[in-house]
Amino acid sequence: MIDAHIHLDLYEQADIEGMMRELPKWGVDRVVAVSVDLASSRRVRQLYLDYPGLVVPAYGQHPERSIPAEKETEELFAFIRRHQEETAAVGEVGLPYYSRREAEQKGERFALEPYKELLEAFIKLAKELDKPVVLHAVYEDADTACDLLEKYSVSRAHFHWFKGSEKTVRRMMENGYYVSFTPDIVYSEKIRALAKLVPIERAMAETDGPWPFEGPFHGQKTHPRMVGSVIRELAAIKSLSPEEADAIVLANTMKFYGIR
Q1: Which residues, at least 6 apart from 105, have a Cβ–Cβ distance to it below 8 Å?
Q2: Which of 207, 150, 222, 220 minimizes the C-alpha distance to 34?
Q3: Is 211:222 a contact under the CB 8 Å cutoff?
Q4: Which residue of 18, 72, 208, 219 lies most exposed, with the fewest beta carbons within 10 A?
Q5: What is the largest CA-CA distance in the chain?
Q6: Cβ distance 50 to 81 under 8 Å?
Q7: What percent of the chain has pLDDT over 90?
Q8: Predicted confidence band at 172 (pLDDT cuts at 50, 70, 90)?
Q9: Residue 16 — pLDDT band, cuts 50, 70, 90?
Q10: In contact, 5 and 34? CB cutoff 8 Å
């Protein structure tokens, strides 16, 4: 198995060391470690160097964070270009749905255009480097992301922990995009309904750790081993054996990220 999306650098060092030691025991071959800003990208790269063959790095700027200063953005783009040979993808990037909604609920003005401009710049960079894009783009933001992906003919897009309409899902599938599911698929009817719309050949499994989960995972530290629960639930939804679902999801993830 592969955890297709985890914020490995946000864990305590002792937790990272323990997880990396335990991966083989749980049948997890690798984790795709995404980044949230320039400093995070540097930490993720160090984890990639510290754990060769286990950490697959992706570098980017999380959209739920404030827009960085121009100098920092330039440094991040230069960092990604400089390390493009090792970079599996540009990510995590996208649009700030939750931050925007929170501001609007408070009656505050929220300027979305700078985030759209930054996302477009990241998509252009992914096209330039021939890299996949890891996206945080949910609900109506996913349609905006699709518009930009189509504008630059970027077909390798991974919408992580996606939520959205059936119409948007159909558009994403027609374009060849992938969707990953988190452990909440085990206890969320909405996520299971979404999984029914996504062909197993376009599905991946992730934890988005250290984000915590409820249901049977309540009170547990999020761990890459939890992708096993995601795959078992996908298997049940798709009327496959866990072994069949595991083989398909693993192949999907390796193909998308160019893992050998």
Answers
A1: none
A2: 207
A3: yes
A4: 219
A5: 51
A6: no
A7: 100
A8: very high
A9: very high
A10: yes
Return the number of other C-beta atoms located less than 10 Å from residue 162's C-beta.
23
Contact 165, 193 (CB under 8 A): no
Got the DSSP string for 124-187?
Answer: HHHHHHT--EEEE--THHHHHHHHHHHHTT---EEEET----HHHHHHHHHTT-EEEE-GGGGT
Helix (H) or strand (E) holding 98: helix 97-105
Strand partners, 180: 160, 204
Nearest to 115 by CA among 130, 93, 86: 93
pLDDT of residue 204: 98
Q: Which residues of 74-87 are buried (b: 16+ CB within 10 A; e: fewer)?
A: eebbebbeeeeeeb
- Check: CB of residue 93 under 8 Å from CB of residue 122: yes
> Any long-range contacts for 246-253 (C-beta under 8 Å, 24+ apart)?
246/1, 248/200, 248/201, 248/203, 249/1, 249/200, 249/203, 249/204, 249/205, 250/1, 250/2, 250/29, 252/178, 252/201, 252/202, 252/203, 252/204, 253/2, 253/4, 253/32, 253/204, 253/205
